[in-house]
Specification:
Oligomer: single chain
Low-confidence stretches: none
Radius of gyration: 19 Å
Structural class: alpha+beta
Largest sheet: 7 strands, antiparallel
Mean pLDDT: 94
Shape: globular
Order of helices and strands: EEEEEHEHEEEHEEEEHHEEEHH
Number of helices: 7
Strand content: 15-25%
Number of strands: 16
């Protein structure tokens, strides 16, 4: 693996480009298989930064693959879109080292147009909403909770819409999510999201990490009519990870995600601006946080660079 920063992929000459996201580029391998390429791009406040984070793509890709393995062992019958980390033959020989460990071949599925967010602890926008009117995404929450406290009745399912790139997702009530995905699939999605969170939270806590909240995405296997876990899973980009040793109810927590990047952008008056270049110290701190999360959860260090 090369210790460099991959901001842009250039595989269109060998595979059709399907779409570019904020972090991932998606290519078509064949009629039923897609290639997820996780770049080192990083976004904050729905804007992509002008420079990237070394090794971030590999850390996210390998962490997701490890979670697919862990969760498939924990939940009988769990279906995921994951096929292999092996590179497809279409990637040229002189590019294979650069793309190794940041690519995932997956099954092409119909994607449900919601994000299945599960919150175990009250923080972020949930805390702001609760302070305002005692609810989270329209759900009544018992009074008396303090910031960063676990929800007393267990994890909360609070879905959101899937906005187009550059737009903001909208938190919605589970009843609204059911209207979007259909009543037939709403309950299985909710139950699976909560089960995934509970298993992952227990696994992470044993390794010193609290998963405060996370988002899952699901697709539909039309041949079997099964709900399938897709996209990235339980990474610092899709989750809020806290250090268990320093956890303290009643205040905001230090995290393994990009909150310090968001804080820096806000302090510099750069929030919401496109193409901002991060200074070296912010880049280094972000890479350190992503790496520590991976090493704690995967139980191994990232492979040495070539």
């Amino acid at each position: 693996m090369i210790d460099n920063v991959l901001m842009h992929t250039h595989l269109g000459a060998t595979m059709p480009l399907v779409t570019r996201g904020k972090v991932r580029d998606l290519y078509r391998v064949d009629g039923s298989t897609l290639l997820f390429v996780t770049t080192d791009r990083i976004s904050a406040h729905d804007r992509i930064m002008g420079n990237g984070i070394p090794n971030k793509g590999s850390l996210l890709c390998l962490m997701t693959a490890r979670w697919f393995e862990i969760l498939s062992e924990a939940i009988s019958g769990l279906q995921t879109h994951f096929i292999t980390l092996d590179l497809p033959a279409q990637i040229p020989a002189d590019a294979r080292e650069q793309y190794q460990d940041r690519c995932m071949q997956v099954r092409e599925l119909e994607i449900f147009k919601i994000e299945a967010i599960v919150r175990g602890y009250i923080t972020g926008s949930a805390w702001s909403s609760y302070e305002k009117d005692g609810t989270v995404c329209g759900i009544e929450i018992p009074p008396g909770l303090r910031e960063s406290e676990a929800f007393p009745l267990g994890p909360l399912y609070t879905p959101s819409t899937k906005a187009e790139q550059g737009a903001h997702d909208e938190n919605i009530h589970p009843d609204k999510a059911a209207e979007i995905v259909g009543a037939k699939y709403a309950r299985p999605i909710e139950e699976l999201a909560l089960s995934l969170y509970k298993h992952a939270a227990a696994y992470a806590y044993e390794r010193g990490i609290i998963i405060a909240d996370t988002k899952f995405e699901f697709g539909l296997d039309k041949e079997t009519d099964q709900v399938v876990l897709v996209d990235e899973v339980l990474t610092p980009d899709s989750s809020r990870f806290w250090l268990a040793d320093t956890y303290k109810i009643g205040e905001a927590q230090s995290s393994f995600d990009k909150q310090h990047l968001r804080d820096w952008l806000t302090s510099q008056g750069l929030k919401g601006k496109e193409g901002v270049r991060m200074p070296d110290d912010i880049v280094a701190k972000t890479e350190e946080k992503y790496r520590e999360a991976y090493e704690r959860l995967a139980g191994k260090k990232l492979a040495a660079t070539s």
